[in-house]
Design a protein that fits this description.
This protein is mainly β. It contains three helices and 15 strands.
């Protein structure tokens, strides 16, 4: 199975004909972000990435702050786990929940042998075709460490949020300077190409930080603006 998943992940790189060689990928990442809604601070997010042998695990926990904490006292916990290949991450399991009894719990299982994605949400199950190189909503942010997309080009990715499959197409622009809580950074700026009824997404990756995301912007079609901005980032080889 690893052979097939390796080939599937490698196909993702074909979408990046000019991608530079990635720097050595860390085995451990710890990151923290502030989450803003329309400019107001609504949550803090803590993430860990751990790689060991041929496998990986990512855990993301988001804790509401301020008034929102009264309505969402339990943290949102998102996990992704799977295999490591020469081309990066090959997810096996993805989960999104607020506690074990969350009725809106979402789970996705990647069956690479049968090329099927099995999603479970709100007590319902569905099986979808699984395109080569598909990432989940969490693993995609760490797959950039393996792609190092730092030349102007079009990046195409298949992604699932545990509810459905989506094809994301990003324009890529390198050398974009931004200010962060960690100081000024030269970033690679990804902008999702989308229809008017879809959410707009922009991602800023830091090449000097293994192409990890240091800022994320989501513009919903209803007008809400969500931002995720880095406050802490530590890596270990």
């Amino acid at each position: 199975m690893r052979c097939r998943t390796g080939r599937a992940a490698a196909l993702l790189l074909l979408a990046l004909p000019g991608a530079a060689a990635a720097p050595p990928v860390p085995l451990s990442v710890s990151a923290s972000y502030n989450v803003l809604r329309n400019g107001g601070h609504v949550a803090v997010m803590h993430e860990t990435f751990e790689a060991s042998g041929s496998s990986y695990r990512i855990v993301s926990e988001t804790h509401a702050v301020g008034l929102l904490a009264l309505f969402a006292p339990r943290p949102l916990r998102v996990t992704s786990s799977g295999w490591l290949t020469g081309a990066g991450l090959t997810p096996q399991y993805y989960e999104h929940k607020r506690g074990e009894d969350d009725p809106r719990r979402i789970r996705a299982e990647f069956d690479w042998e049968e090329a099927q994605l099995k999603v479970r949400r709100s007590g319902r199950s569905e099986t979808l075709p699984l395109p080569p190189g598909t990432q989940d909503q969490l693993s995609i942010m760490y797959q950039f460490m393996y792609l190092a997309p730092d030349r102007p080009q079009l990046l195409q990715l298949s992604r699932t949020n545990g509810r459905r499959l989506e094809q994301h197409r990003y324009t890529v622009r390198a050398g974009v300077e931004i200010e962060t809580a960690l100081g000024p950074m030269t970033t690679v700026h990804l902008v999702r190409q989308h229809h008017p009824e879809e959410s707009g997404v922009e991602i800023w990756l830091a090449p000097q930080k293994h192409y990890l995301p240091v800022r994320l912007l989501v513009l919903e079609d209803g007008g809400a603006r969500f931002e995720q901005v880095i406050t802490k980032l530590e890596t270990k080889p």
